Amino acid sequence: MCRLFLATCLALAVPALARAAECGGDFGAFVAGLKAEMRAEGLSAAQADAFFRGVSQDARVLRADRGQGVFRKDFLDFSASVISQNRLTIGARMGTKHTAVFDRAERSFGVPRGVLLAFWGLETDFGAVQGDFSTRDALVTLAHDCRRPDLFRPQVLAAARLAARGDFDPARTRGAWAGEIGQVQMLPADILVNGVDGDGDGHIDLKGSAPDALMSGAKMIAGMGWRAGEPWMQEITVPADLDWRQTGLNHALSTADWARMGVRGRTGALAPGQGSVLLPMGRKGPAFMVYPNFRVLFEWNKSFVYVTSAAYFATRLEGAPRLDPRAPEPGLSADQMKALQAKLAARGHDVGKIDGILGEKTREAVQAEQARLGLPADAWPTAALLGRL
């Protein structure tokens, strides 16, 4: 599950390439330009030539980049598809097998094992499925493509730097279609900044070494702002008369205030501090209290349904029971969602791309329109709302 929507500050790591946004045109000339920039950044001509020897464009990468329908699933469907009993079982086994690594990661970076296990499981099935795309070719293909050269062009130099120090083989390293590498699927620039030699062999090998991958993943999450010792998500029960306008990631109250409004932890008390009531499928579906650490996970992946599923998976791996799905109202089809987004955009709401995906911007716009129309403002779009608009 690639981190396609990553929004890291790559310019800090590779300033010269981050300033260069050239893309498209003749592929050979494009590669020649990259070689020149690599030499300007301190790599030798021999290193640049070796890195690009045999490089080619990969049409499969571009097809994958344009076909991410999986994120159009609702939370219950998506989470059911990625959180199987088999993954829970293997996750528990891996947690025990690498318990010393998880303990060290939490001591060093404050990230609990459930969170690391969840991303390890969702990204690569605990290292079993790491992708079969040439990482070098994928990165160069996406850098040449003019959709997001500012994201992928810096990654090419980052990969070359990894190669120069012996931690990346441009001819043989394979991974996800968007250029992520290893068991927790990190981009080359992130490896340069957050890579940790977890097994002490003198190299950072995110593909073959679980300790390297887990420690590096923990360092990256910590760098995103993770608060050690604090929760991220907790299943809750909500009263039928809750003020739904206060729910959603764009609203936060103290958990004491939520408790006074009738919100309760399904198992155990609410944690002290600030929290948001998250209703991924509306007021009649599953309900969670999410804490500040939950928002950190969007630095790993920008997809609302992916992050919510990963956070829930992490709670299961830490011993939480299976959620109560309740009985959410039917949602919208992809075409209906696109029509809804178009209507919301026409009313002045920023919903981002009209893509049929219920992301956080669309949810906030839905909630605002529900409130305006006097409907329960739970941010869950329904056919009734579409009809009213």
UniProtKB/TrEMBL annotation:
<feature type="signal peptide">
    <location>
        <begin position="1"/>
        <end position="20"/>
    </location>
</feature>
<dbReference type="GO" id="GO:0009253">
    <property type="term" value="P:peptidoglycan catabolic process"/>
</dbReference>
<dbReference type="Pfam" id="PF13406">
    <property type="entry name" value="SLT_2"/>
</dbReference>
<dbReference type="Pfam" id="PF01471">
    <property type="entry name" value="PG_binding_1"/>
</dbReference>
<keyword id="KW-0732">Signal</keyword>
<dbReference type="InterPro" id="IPR023346">
    <property type="entry name" value="Lysozyme-like_dom_sf"/>
</dbReference>
<dbReference type="InterPro" id="IPR036365">
    <property type="entry name" value="PGBD-like_sf"/>
</dbReference>
<dbReference type="InterPro" id="IPR031304">
    <property type="entry name" value="SLT_2"/>
</dbReference>
<dbReference type="InterPro" id="IPR011970">
    <property type="entry name" value="MltB_2"/>
</dbReference>
<dbReference type="InterPro" id="IPR043426">
    <property type="entry name" value="MltB-like"/>
</dbReference>
<dbReference type="InterPro" id="IPR036366">
    <property type="entry name" value="PGBDSf"/>
</dbReference>
<dbReference type="GO" id="GO:0008933">
    <property type="term" value="F:peptidoglycan lytic transglycosylase activity"/>
</dbReference>
<protein>
    <submittedName>
        <fullName>Lytic murein transglycosylase</fullName>
    </submittedName>
</protein>
<dbReference type="InterPro" id="IPR002477">
    <property type="entry name" value="Peptidoglycan-bd-like"/>
</dbReference>
<feature type="domain" description="Peptidoglycan binding-like">
    <location>
        <begin position="334"/>
        <end position="387"/>
    </location>
</feature>
<feature type="domain" description="Transglycosylase SLT">
    <location>
        <begin position="27"/>
        <end position="314"/>
    </location>
</feature>
